[in-house]
Design brief:
Blueprint: H1 2-9, H2 16-25, H3 28-37
């Protein structure tokens, strides 16, 4: 999935760590997981 995001956004692989850090930092991943896996 990460590879697909990188390809779609045409990110250089060098920026992948920063990209993932930004997603986690902004808490977007947590919100998405909560929406999809809530009980």
């Amino acid at each position: 999935m990460v590879k697909l995001i990188v390809e779609i956004l045409e990110l250089p692989l060098d920026d992948l760590d920063q990209f993932m850090a930004n997603l986690i930092q902004e808490n977007k991943v947590k919100k998405l997981l909560k929406l999809h896996f809530s009980v």
